[in-house]
Amino acid sequence: MSANTINGKELAHKLREEMAEEVSRLRSEGIVPHLTVIIVGDDPASKSYVNGKKKASAQTGISSEVIEMPSSLSQDRLLEKIEELNNDEAVHGILVQLPLPEHIDEQLVIESISPYKDVDGFHPFNIGKMMTGDAAFLPCTPYGILTMLHSYDIPISGKHAVVLGRSNIVGKPVGQLLLNENATVTYCHSRTDNLYDYTRSADILIAAVGKPNMISADDIKEGSVIIDVGINRQEDGSLTGDVDFASAAEKASHITPVPKGVGPMTITMLLQNTIKAAKGLSRRGG
User: Fold this and answer.
1) Would you say residue 12 lies in a domain?
2) Domain that includes residue 56, residue range
3) Is the whole model's pTM more than 0.90, yes or no?
4) DSSP tag of 243
5) Binding positions for NADP(+) (predicted)?
6) Is residue 149 within 8 Å of 192, Cβ to Cβ?
7) 61, 94, 129, 238: least CB-packed within 10 angstroms?
8) How much is the pLDDT for 285?
9) Do the domain assignments include residue 221?
10) 121 marked among binding-site residues
11) Same structural domain, 96 and 169
12) Does the annotation place 167 within a ligand binding site?
């Protein structure tokens, strides 16, 4: 048996083409979806992510701007800038690139963004609506994972989904989204006893812990679906996930590669959230 590869790069390209058509229609109606990204400091990884978001926005016709601020920026000044953007009707989506300098309270910053412009899906308002299954801006990586499962017609209802990792960005929300779709969800983490007993029972395994190749063929169930969220840089500079792709692919039914798996979908769902925000604001007269 050899697994079907879930190609996130190809799927993202297809979805962005569809988004470009939708943005074109919105523009013809006088609505220009606009995303503003704030980056504080000069972290190279953050700058790379932000540049990727700007490029992807341009590909779909979404207007975007990047506001660069020094790492010495005060928390109050950052909150003032966010409030300006909250009140700017031309801005539909606001994203503050994390991590922030230590003197700035990240949670306070997240909560200061209007929940109607929270295209990262991290505001407690949107997290709460996600928990209850209401319409909300979903966190981008979990949203991307769900979209991948749907796009490849992978059954979720009634399946045992094991989530390896409990971060607020990926682990917790992706488990909730799967639960909302009637999966039976088990969360595992660094303190889970007999961890691999759980991974071997998973119909769907979400690996999101940041430990290279910690899951191999011996640790998974025959015919399972493996979604590898890990991105780990090896000594030779190459990237690998949390799953040993070569061995797991011989046993799984579907598997995501690293790179070209979950990563491209994250930015794509950010764009999708921005379009949704633009449409939502237009309905409210904003």
Assistant:
1) no
2) 28-113
3) yes
4) B
5) 165-167, 231
6) no
7) 238
8) 39
9) yes
10) no
11) no
12) yes
